[in-house]
What we know:
The chain is mainly alpha-helical. The chain has 4 helices and no strands.
Amino acid sequence: MMAVMKLPKWAINAINSQMAHFLWGNMGDQHKYHLAHWGLVSRKKDFGGLWIPNVREYNMALLASCGKRFVDNNNSDWKKLIAYKYNVYSPNIFGPDNT
């Protein structure tokens, strides 16, 4: 789903929360001390983190790759379908054409 739609903020927060609970061993109402901030944990190993993916950035990267494939693939059927449905070659920003 992350490759075709932008996840809402609440979904990203819920996924990050579950990953953090798993990493730090939180179970139910039993919370443990967090020895690092989540921003530090999600950094690459070269920068002192554990390289746990940042869900928001990962989602945006997947969407960008989908957009790149749309631009690069000239003869694909899904590009023709999207181009026809959304009229990407001559968009009308003022609304439907009433001519």
